[in-house]
Structure formats: structure tokens, C-alpha cells
Amino acid sequence: MDTGKLLETILPKERIKCRLIDLVAYASDAGFYYLRPKAVVQPVSEEEIIALLAFSHQHKIPITFRAGGTSLSGQSITDGILVDLSQYWNQLIIEEGGNLVRVQPGITGSMVNNYLKKHKRKIGPDPSSIDAAMMGGILSNNSSGMCCGVSLNSYHTTKHIRFILPSGKSFSTENKVDYTRFEQECPDIYSSIVNLRQQIADNPTLADRIRTKYLSKNTVGYSLNAFIDYSHPLDIFSHLLIGAEGTLGFIAEAVMETVADYPYKSSAFIYFENIYSACQAIEPLSLTGAEAVELMDRASLRSIENVKGVPAILKTLPEEAAALLVEYQSNSLDELQAKIESLKPYSAKFVLLEPISFTSDPGIQAFYWKLRKGMFPAVGAVRASGTTVVLEDIAVPVAQLGDAILDLHVLFAKYKYDNAIIFGHAKDGNIHFVVTQSFNSADEVDRYDRFLREVVALVVNKYDGALKAEHGTGRNMAPFVETEWGTEAYHIMKSLKKVIDPENLLNPGVIINEHKNAHLQDLKSLPVVEQEVDKCIECGYCEHKCPSRNVTLTPRQRIVVRRELALLEVDGKFELHAELVKQYQYDGLDTCAVDGLCATSCPVDINTGDLVKRLRRESHSTFSNKVALFVSKNFYLVTLLVNFALEAGTLVNSLFGKNAMIKLTKAFKKLIPEFPLWSNQLITSGAISGKYKKEIDFETKTGPAVVYFPTCISRVMGGAPNKKSIPDSFLSVSEKSGIQVIIPAGIEALCCGQLFSSKGYNLAYADKCNETIDKLWTVTKEGILPVILDVSSCSQTLQQCRPVLNDLNKQRFDRLSILDSIDYLHDYVIPACGPVETKGTVVLHPVCSLQKMGLERKFVSVASHFSEKAEVPIHSGCCGMAGDRGFIFPELTASATAYEANEVNKNSYEGYYSSGKTCEISMSEAVGKNYESILYLADECLKDKPHD
Q1: Hey, CA dihedral for 676, 678, 682, 687, is it positive or negative?
Q2: Are 297 and 422 in contact (CB under 8 A)?
Q3: What pairing do the DSSP bridges indicate for beta strands 388-395 and 705-709?
Q4: Is the pLDDT of residue 760 over 90?
Q5: What is the pLDDT of residues 187-237, one digit of tens each?
Q6: Do residues 21 and 584 make contact, with C-beta atoms less than 8 angstroms apart?
Q7: What is the spatial distance between Cα 393 and Cα 725, in angstroms, rounded to a whole number?
Q8: Measured between alpha carbons, how far is 562 from 553 in angstroms, rounded to an integer?
Q9: Each residue of 726-754: pLDDT tens digit?
Q10: From CA 104, how far away is CA 162, in angstroms rounded?
Q11: Which H, E and C letters describe 6-27, residue by residue?
Q12: CA torsion, points 238, 205, 213, 76, in degrees to nearest 10?
């Protein structure tokens, strides 16, 4: 049966993914299970969801809904139809002044919070994966997190739900009429819920157990507390959907009650002599109002001790040490300080390794939380190649937390999990422990099975705790639901599943699974591939940053496919291997922007862009490398040819209409897919006419001086309609600020090397970088003067070129100061310029390089200096231009800029600014407004410097 072909009867072909590369890419989530779907579909409406459910029943094919795919227990994979909600289900409406927010399942939790920020509100659940986790998963897994505890989790903060049953019937708790409809149209489900509720009410022991278990975090099985908390079957069922992991129905929309996002926060790492003394501090911290109390054992701290910028004490902690990351939050500074002061009588009795030091610095606080959130993946990064990461998630009574941790350490030693770590939400008695495990042999699988069964016995029998506190039952704990809950409660869950999904087609195998070894089936194989790939644990934290995520593949998926290629080769499946290699060329290599933003979200700093550049490099022939080297060595000639081509294009437009070149290049592209498209934003710079010097005599020099390196992009295509070129704007800004400028003689032949680096031409890249550094060494008077570049991506490329330099140039490079134009405006121009005129509200597009160089704040600060208000869109991200890649693959930039452009076009601005010419072209095309270098903003607002 050709599932993909059959699906074309209900969905358009472009939203059905059935190629081998698509099925492989979606076969994994963040957990350690692997199921390859028969098809991946992307519906856009409830009507299409209903049609898919009918299709599932008609053809007896299971169906699973997936949003962010950050689930850790195998609940977002299937060997049936996978419904991808990440692209078309991202609507959000803020209601009642931010007290409520209406969400669809395909928007990330952090994006919801970004919209709520101006109302000083946020959603209750705060999982560590909130930047990547989407609302569908946050609801379906009953997510909680670091601050929300039980009372503010998904279950308790969901006010209304609109859902679709497996039968295709839809209901909303917001509509009063649906309460009657539910009884009339679903009598079997309605009566079953009534009967199950009565069964619980008639058994006080069971009812009390349900109440008690949900006083702490628990996501094992279905949310049975709904039978106690609500009386009407529709309300009961809507809350059963929270934490049901997509096994009972489809959540189409939810209305969430938001919580306060306190403006004042203070955080501290508190170091204790041992885990017991850390656990004794939990109660006083909770009593004094700490919002977050995160526990970390010595092994977990060791996993992050080599991260740049961590507190120095981490490397010197004794073996028994432990730490708490604590945060207080308040509406005022006085209230915040009062909370911290109230801790002092208690902290005097703490067994500490150093005095407590709180910080309110947002940058340091963000870094602390990044460390905490990155512990799980950090362990994954240092594991042996070929092993996977298993993250278990339990809860025990807080008073017994120290004992439970020591018991787990005993099990780690017994089963030789030598690098296991423990961390978690101490206030809730909720701890996570991570072990690295191979599933490549029967002995290793048996070891894991015996270990897990002992953990289950420990948690259930000794501590009466929860086997899954917040990560969901999934496939991992499905065989042990009855163990934790007992026979009667488990039978209630089974009855519920049976009446709602009698054919067991909705995410089968998850939560309810009669196979006692289900946790050992469909385990993910992780072959040894290459360094970048082997470090990845497929957590998916990178995906929301990727400009190609809605066109082809994400960074995680690029790595998943690389692993599949290795497995196919080992298994001798050469035809499938060849098919996948062919598909990977476009999906994996051609449409990767190699911007590296994925690394900024990856807890272990995997830069998939670097992987792609290496793969491109390895695919180049000797001849193509020689051509690239020829271009490098004859760069001035090449720029003249490019300039001539641009002038010729402009002439064609003047003779045959302003869009003649666009039409012409589109025609060529139909014949030659790699042919670049023309943009009317391509305007030549002309000769530099501003004031500058070729060298400075230091004996007669007065005032500051810099070396200006106009990038090749600005030299060739830095023009603007009826305005100065970018180089002339830079010179004008400098003159108005009283800063002398040197432009190196022979600049026409210089380049940062990005043109070659991004395409994997390493010889040409090294050649050009060495030539450029050699020239800059001389013109800067051996590093005395700073070098300023006017395109941020070029600045970053030159700043990172050291590895390809020869030994002499490495020494020279270390003494050079290479700065971006944003640094120049912020650190040199603004302090020197005096009063300025300002524009109204302007909008900014921070290019990827600014984010990677840590210059976003400076960028906003510069724009704010020259305007009444500078806005950065919530959806700002990589535009996908990637130098010239957007000209060749315009579908990449169109997709990457769509959300940001839509947001920008809802308002009007006096100016649109960025710091990279090709990115400005991309944004101009997307928004329909003229994006230009922020140098223009400075130039237009600066006043002429008075002459002495």
C-alpha cells in the first residue's frame, strides 16, 4: 500500500512527505527510541485533522501528533502516519490584558512568553526545553519545570481546550452548548467517564491515593486527578488530555491562564559539602520564598566545569560536594532584598564551601540557567561514541530526597554507570539522572533492563514516588504504569483508552502498553560517524534557530540522516544509501545557510554549519579547488568582473524595464537551477569619494585614528538609490566624529575569506586570509591601530581566521584588534560625537554574526542613541541569505524571513536597519521596505563636526 499516494486524496502533495530522507529525518525525537513513519503530513486546519483521523481508521494505520519533537520517552515517533504541527499551527492571541493566552500546538513556549513579556506575564510551565518545546507537547506531556512546581503546571493553568476525538468529533470547553453535545454525540464516552468517576468516588482509598500522588509532580499514566477535580465529563476529559501524550485526542487550541513574570530577580550558586547538607537547605529556601531551587550533584557539576565562564570553584570542588542554583523573584527591589535577607538566619547553619553571593545581573543569571539547562546534553556530548543518553525523571518526598540520591549512587556503582549525574527541581523532590548507555549488544540491553527494574522497585516500593515526574510516560515507563498505580487505577486508564480509541490507532504503545518489555523495543542505534554527529543527542534545542527548518531539514535532522547513511552503509543497503545521498545534497547541504546559529542554542556547541562546510569541502574536486584558488589570487580582477556584471544588469533594467533582469534570471534558472536570481537591490558602489588617508604619521597625528577595511561586498555592491555608498557613509560618520581613517592601499585585492570558507574552499580561504592579515599588519603599524569592517559577517569571519593562518601571521593576528562597525559606532563614534538629531521608531534586523559575536546589545544601543525607539522583532532570526546562497536558493530566504517580515509589516517605521548588505537585500525583498546599514542611520543623525 502506497500510503503517500493514498494521502493525496485528502491533502495536497506538497504537504505530504514520503521521500526516504523525510521518513528518516522524522524517525527520531529527543528520546532513545526509533520508529520510521510511513508518511509525514502537515495539515493546516481542523478539517484536515479530521480527514486524517478518518483515513487512519479506514486504512488501520496508526497516527501520532508531533510538535517540537523534544519528548524524552519516545512519545512523538511512530511507524504509522506522523502529523507534523510545527509549521502551520502557531497562532497566538493575548486576551484580558495578558492574563489569558490562546495558543495552537505549534508555537514554542518561549515564543509565547516573548509575546507576554510586555504584559509582565508568562505561561506557568517552564521546562528547560522551553525554547524548542512547543505548546502541543507542553500540554500533552503536562509539562512543569524549574519554577512552576505542581500548582502552575499545564494541568492547573489550562482554562479551556478545543479538541478533536479519534472519531473526528470536536468540542470546546469554551462553548456551553458543547457540554450538551458531548453527552448526545458521544454517549459511550460520556457514560464511561461518569461510571469511572463514580468508581473512584466509591473507593476512598483509591481517591485518597490519587489526591496524594498529585500533590507532587507525576506524569505516569493518565491524569486521574481530573476525575476528582471536575464533575462534568467534558471538563474531566479535557483535563485528561493534559498529559495524555496524544493518545486520547488532538488538542487544537488551548486557553492558558498566565502567571506573573516578576521584573526583579536574584540568583546564586550555593555550594555545599555534600548532597545531604544541600538537601537540608531545601526547606528553608522554600519557606523564604525561593522560586527555584535546583539541585546538582558533584558529577553533574563536573559535566559543565569546562564551559567557558563557569565559576572557578567548580574545578576544585571535593568529590562529595553538591550545589543548589537558587533564584528569588519579586515585584520590587525592596521585596526582593527582604526575601534574601530572610534567608540569613537559616544560611548561617548551612554547611557551605564558600559564602553565598547573589547576583541580579541579567547576563550572569542567563548564563547560570544556561548551565543548568545544558547538563543533560552536556553529559551526552562527552559520552563514548556509539552510546546514547538515557534521562530518567523521578519524584520522591522532599524529606527523603537525600536518601534517594544516595540509593541511586549505589545503583550507578552496581551497574557501572560511572559517569551518571543527578540534578533536578529540589523544591518538588523531582530529580533527573542521566546515564550513558549502548544498545548495540544484548548484554548492554540486559544491563539497562536490570538497572531500570531496580530503579522502579526503589522509587515505588521504598519511596512511594513517581517514576516520571514531568517527562511523560511514553514508551519508556509504559510497562510500569500498573506497578506504580496499582491494578484498579491502571484498569481505569485502560478502560478510558478503550472507549475513546477502541482500535488503538492514536499513538499506540504510549502510556498503555501490555508488552512487559516495551521499554526495550525499537531502541535507537547510534553508529560512530564523525565528531560533530557523535556528540549530538538529538535533543532538538537547535531547531527553532534554523532558517531551513520549514524548507528542508533542521540541524538535528541533518545529523539524524548522517547517522542513517552510516547504518545503511554498514548493512550493505547500497541502493538506499545512494538514494539518501542524492536527496541529502539539496536538503542537507545546498539549503544549509551555515550561519552557525544552531550552535548558540546547542548545549554542547555543535555547529552543524561547520559540519556542512566540511562536507562541501570534501565534495570539491581538485579542479574546483584550483579555480577557487585562482579567484583568490586574482581577486581584484574578479571584483572588476562582478562590478561589470552588475553595471550591465542595471543597464538592461534601464533599457527594458526595472524588472527585466529578474525575469531574465528566472528564465535562466529554469534551465540551470543553480543560476542566481537578480535583485534590484544590487547597486554598485562606485569609487570611494569620502575623506581618508593611506597612512598616518604618528608624530603629527591628533585625535583617534582607525584602519577602515571596506569589505568586498560594500566595495562592489554597497550603493544605494540617491544616497552615499556604504564606504562613503562610514567615512562621513568618521569625519563628523573627528576620527581619522586609513584605507589600506591595495584594498581592492583584499577579502575576509568568507566567500571561500562558506563554500568549503579551504585552500582559497587560507590564501586570502593570510594575504589580508599580512597587509593589515603593516597598515595598522603592527597592531597599534584597530581595524574596522563594515559587514558583520565579514568581521566575524576575519576574527575567526586564525586556524588557517601560517605561524608568522598567527603571531600577527594575536596583536591585531579587529572590530565590527557596531563596535566602532558604540565605542568610538558615540562617545566622540556630541548631541545628535534622532529619528522616530526604527526596526532592526540583527544578523547572525552579531548574535555569535555577542553584539546584539550594542546594536540596539547604537540604534537607540540615534532614534526615539529601536525595536527588534520577536521573530528576528537568520534571513537565510548566507552570502550568495539566497540568490541561488530563494526559497530558503523566503521561508526564513516569512515570520519576521509578517511581524514587521504590522507596523510602520521611520527606518529599517541591519549590518550586512546581503541580509539587508533579503529583508528588503521580504518586507518590501528598504533595509540599509546602520551606518546610514548614524550618518543622517550626526551633525557636522565644527572646524577649529
Answers
A1: positive
A2: yes
A3: unpaired
A4: no
A5: 999 999 999 999 999 999 999 999 999 999 999 999 999 999 999 999 999
A6: yes
A7: 58
A8: 12
A9: 999 999 999 999 999 998 888 888 999 99
A10: 10
A11: HHCCCCCHHHEECCHHHHHHCC
A12: -50
Give CA–CA dist 195/767, Å, rounded: 78
Nearest by Cα to 177 from 234, 104, 100, 229: 234
Under 8 Å between Cβ of 404 and 396: yes
**Sheet of strand 292-297: strand arrangement:** 264-272, 322-330, 292-297, 421-425, 430-437, 388-395
Question: What is the per-residue pLDDT across 835-866, written as a single tens digit (0 to 9) for each?
Answer: 899 999 999 999 999 989 999 999 999 999 99
Q: Quote the CA–CA distance of 764 and 472 in Å, as a whole number.
A: 51
What is the rounded distance in angstroms from the CA atom of residue 755 to the CA atom of residue 722?
28
- List CB contacts of 6: < 8 A, sequence separation 6 or more: 55, 59
259 in Cβ contact with 152 (< 8 Å): yes
Cβ atoms within 10 Å, residue 660: 16
Cell of 176: 456551553
Q: Which of 830, 823, 738 is nearest to 786 (CA)?
A: 823
What 3-state class would DSSP assign to 510? coil
Q: Are strands 322-330 and 264-272 parallel, antiparallel or unpaired?
A: antiparallel
Residues with Cβ < 8 Å from 274, sequence gap 6 or more? 320, 321, 322, 351
How far, in Å, are 448, 452, 476, 515 from residue 441 at the CA level? 11, 17, 19, 21
> For residue 921, what is the enclosing H or E element?
helix 917-927
Rg of the chain over all Cα atoms, to the nearest angstrom: 30
Whether 948 has a pLDDT exceeding 60, the answer reads: no
Q: Are 591 and 542 in contact (CB under 8 A)?
A: no
Other beta carbons within 10 angstroms of residue 628's beta carbon come to: 22
Q: Are strands 911-914 and 839-844 parallel, antiparallel or unpaired?
A: parallel
Sign of the alpha-carbon torsion through 662, 760, 552, 379: negative
Q: Which of 544, 583, 454 is nearest to 878 (CA)?
A: 544
DSSP, collapsed to helix, strand or coil, labels residue 389 as strand
How far apart are alpha carbons 189 and 499 in whole angstroms? Answer: 6
- Cell 491533502: give the residue: 11
What band does 702 get if pLDDT is binned at 50, 70 and 90? Answer: low
DSSP secondary structure, 562-627, as one string? HHHHHHHHHTT-HHHHHHHHHHHIIIIIIT-----HHHHH-TT---HHHHHHHHHHHH--HHHHHH
Residue listed under C-alpha cell 505516569: 220
**Gap between the Cα atoms of 40 and 15, Å rounded:** 8
DSSP letter for 174, please: T
Cell of 886: 539566497
| Distant-in-sequence, close-in-space partners of 642: CB < 8 Å, separation ≥ 6 | 716
Tell me, what's the pLDDT at 639? 86
Kindly report the backbone phi and psi dihedral angles of residue 729, in degrees, each rounded to the nearest multiple of 5, phi listed first.
Answer: -65, -40
Report the 10 Å Cβ neighbour count for 875: 15
Q: Which three cell numbers stand for residue 299?
A: 558529577
